[in-house]
Design goal:
It contains 15 helices and 8 strands. The protein is mainly alpha-helical. Helix 9 runs antiparallel to helix 10, helix 10 crosses helix 12 and helix 10 packs across helix 13.
């Protein structure tokens, strides 16, 4: 702090004391006036007090100023010492930096020298390489480019071989892991499904109230049984079995209609050609109703809704159709359950998978009417009734007629295989038997004038009903011979097949 500042402080203190003194004197004056003291005495006393206060204030200001001056001088001395120390350290650092700069300059010279040496060495090494390469080319007779290409080819072949080994190992591990997971998922789905073992036969047994009914079924000279077999297209077996007759046919729908017809005739008791035809028509209506009920049952069992009525009817017809001895409608329901569980295990929406699995064999309901694979026929039917394209693809791809492109199609394939391959589901011999009888009927139907064809006696007899207006009696004999020759050429079978051509003319009129 400088002298001007000290003076300002002293002046401030003096002014403060002076104002204090004046205020004190005024208060004293007023008090003395109040007490009756004269003004001259008061002035004299005030001057004396003011002189004394000023003297004291001046001494006190000088003392404080001296104290401030001494403190300021001490601060200045301390700062001078610090500045001297700082200058000394800066000098040392400057010397250190100069030394480092000198060392860096020396190192830079050394590096430049070494770089020149390395450049010379590199040039010499390149020259030696060129000489060695030239000598190697002369000795081996192989160009450097060709040798490099050969070496790269060897390295590439080696890398490719090692990559193939790695890929093979990865594929084996992935396949093993996939098989393990697939077995676990399939085992889980199969264990959750409890399905009965189905074994269809080609014979239906009908219980009779008494053996006397057998004679009425046969009729006079076998008239009733012949007419019954002709109308239903089945083979009625009346043997020594007590109180029972059997209906035999490879076509389950035809066999069911014949069974209901015979049961109605037995319940009615009146058996003659007219009642046989009437019972046959009623049985056909009942079977058609059963077909619709079976289709609706399948929807309820699986939990599928909003299906076209025609598709429901087609599914119901599969109740009376078998595939290798397995009921096709039950197979559809079972496949839908398995597919739903597989989709749930894989974290996929089970609704479209279940729908595709339920409809995957719907084409079998019309395969005897339409040529082609049942998978493609079923897909076309589903497409016609505006099913989802993903569901249609699952139907057409379940036997690989079309390459599967979606996870849904693969799941339907797997579920179909699980349902068909489980123990007790199918019998190969029955399917072959049914196909042979269907082939018998289809061959006979190829001839002109043939109206209906029925394969009876387990395929040992073929009954051909012709149009009486288009085929004469003489032509019927020739037709039976032609059909027999065609069967001999196209089929392989044990024993012999009897071909019977039936030409029946009926004239009907009504009295009014």
């Amino acid at each position: 702090m400088n002298t001007v500042a000290i003076g300002v402080i002293v002046l401030g203190v003096a002014l403060g004391l002076g104002f204090g003194y004046l205020i004190a004197r005024l208060s004293i004056t007023r008090r003395r006036e109040r007490d009756g003291v004269s003004s001259e005495d008061m002035v004299t006393a005030a001057r004396s007090d003011a002189q004394r206060i000023l003297t004291n204030a001046e001494e006190e200001g000088k003392a404080k100023a001296e104290t401030y001056r001494e403190r300021e001088e001490a601060d200045l001395a301390h700062r001078k010492v610090e500045m001297s120390s700082l200058e000394s350290r800066l000098g040392q650092r400057e010397e250190t930096l100069e030394q480092r700069a000198s060392n860096l300059a020396q190192r830079e010279k050394m590096l430049m020298s070494r770089e020149e040496e390395l450049t010379d060495s590199r040039g010499e090494l390149e020259r030696l390489k060129e000489e060695a390469r030239f000598q190697l080319e002369q000795v081996s007779g192989i160009d450097v480019t060709a040798a490099k290409a050969e070496m790269l080819e060897q390295v590439e072949d080696e890398a490719r071989r090692e990559a193939m080994i790695v890929v093979r190992d990865l594929e084996i591990k992935a396949r093993e892991e996939a098989d393990r997971r697939a077995r676990r998922i399939l085992a889980t789905a199969i264990q959750r499904l409890a399905s009965e073992v189905v074994s269809e036969s080609t014979v239906s047994v009908i219980q009779l109230p008494s053996d006397e009914m057998k004679g009425r079924i046969i009729g006079r000279d076998g008239r009733n049984i012949r007419h019954l077999e002709s109308v239903t297209g089945t083979n009625l077996i009346v043997d020594d079995t007590p109180e029972a007759v059997s209906v035999s046919s490879f076509d389950p729908v035809r066999r069911e209609v014949a069974r209901i017809t015979v049961e109605r005739l037995v319940a009615d008791g009146r058996i003659h050609p007219a009642s046989i035809e009437e019972a046959f028509e009623k049985a056909k209506d009942e079977v058609e109703q059963n077909i619709r009920d079976a289709g609706e049952w399948a929807l309820v069992e699986v939990g599928v809704s909003r299906l076209h009525p025609e598709l429901i009817t087609l599914m119901g017809r599969l109740k009376y159709r078998t595939s290798y001895g397995q009921n096709v409608l039950n197979h559809l329901v079972e496949t839908a359950h398995v597919a739903s569980m597989l989709a749930s295990e894989l974290g996929i929406d089970p609704a479209p998978v279940k729908r595709a699995a339920l409809l995957h064999d719907v084409g079998k309901a019309v395969t005897h009417e339409v040529e082609g694979s049942h998978a493609l026929i079923g897909a076309e039917i589903a497409r016609r009734f505006e099913e989802d394209p993903e569901v249609v693809h699952g139907i057409e791809a379940h036997h690989n007629e079309v390459e599967p492109r979606t996870v849904l199609a693969v799941i339907v394939q797997a579920a179909d295989t699980v349902s068909a391959a489980r123990p007790g589901a199918r019998r190969e011999t029955l399917e072959g038997y049914v196909k042979r009888l269907e082939k018998l009927e289809s061959i006979a139907l190829e001839f002109e004038g043939v109206d209906q064809v029925y394969a009876l006696q387990a395929g040992r007899e073929v009954r051909v009903i012709v149009d009486p207006g288009g085929i004469s009696d003489l032509e019927s004999r020739e037709l039976s011979r032609q059909i027999a020759r065609k069967l001999e050429e196209d089929l392989q079978y044990p024993g012999q097949i009897q071909v019977t051509v039936i030409r029946e003319f009926r004239a009907t009129d009504y009295a009014r």
